[in-house]
Specification:
With 226 residues, this protein is an all-alpha fold. It has a domain of 104 residues. Helices cover 60% and strands 0% of the residues. The chain is elongated.
């Protein structure tokens, strides 16, 4: 949560002292993802656990967790989509975030009871993440190289987020016609591809090797992670 809050403050140039205000809106997924990843790295290091299996186990449930939080985004009215004429476009009520944006842009009058129909980008993310969750679970059950499930998450999420961002109405396309999240999504895809090749060629990361040397000291539950 702190990572998500910090990322929001940096991205939107807000005072860092506001990091303590965790209620309401003002959280960015990528910040939470980075913070959670760092916490997992520290956890694996402290308890001498193999890193790649931990990443593989966490990946599907990160997708599931965000799929659920996107329902909260829909209820809150944040992360909204651009106006659309498609039949599944949704209206947000007066004083919602999309309504305010459309009033400020001169698209609707201030006495309008609801916004113009917009892409339900929150639901796009939820549906896509549920598909990714199932795919990663199936991949986890197969005998694949350790770390490949995590790589699949990076690539799959990067593609999904990059596509959905093109339908968002709340993000500025200031970086070569792309949003900040789209740039990060491309980076995730590239990192996932590179790591997939590295994990295939390199038997163990240094952290995994260190964990292996202490495996005999682990309890049965911890041994199953390797």
């Amino acid at each position: 949560v702190l990572g998500a809050r910090l990322f929001y403050l940096v991205q939107f140039d807000r005072p860092l002292c506001q990091v303590i205000f965790l209620t309401g809106s003002g959280l960015v997924f990528y910040g939470g993802f980075i913070g959670g990843l760092l916490a997992l790295l520290v956890y694996a290091r402290v308890f001498a656990l193999p890193l790649r299996p931990l990443l593989d186990l966490a990946a599907p449930f990160v997708a599931l967790g965000e799929a659920i939080t996107r329902i909260g985004c829909l209820c809150n009215g944040c992360c909204w989509g651009a106006p659309t004429r498609l039949p599944w476009g949704i209206h947000f009520p007066r004083y919602s975030f999309p309504w305010h944006q459309q009033v400020n842009d001169g698209r609707i009058w201030a006495d309008t009871s609801h916004s113009l129909p917009v892409h339900p980008t929150q639901l796009y993310m939820t549906l896509g993440l549920m598909v990714l969750f199932v795919a990663l679970l199936l991949l986890l059950r197969q005998n694949v190289t350790k770390g490949r499930v995590f790589c699949g998450y990076l690539i799959g999420y990067g593609v999904l987020r990059g596509v959905v961002e093109s339908f968002r109405g709340d993000s500025a396309h200031d970086l070569l016609g792309m949003t900040v999240s789209q740039v990060i999504s491309i980076s995730l895809i590239l990192v996932g591809i590179v790591l997939a090749f590295v994990f295939r060629k390199v038997p163990c990361l240094a952290l995994d090797s260190a964990a292996g040397t202490t495996k005999q000291n682990l309890n049965p539950v911890e041994r199953k992670l390797s």
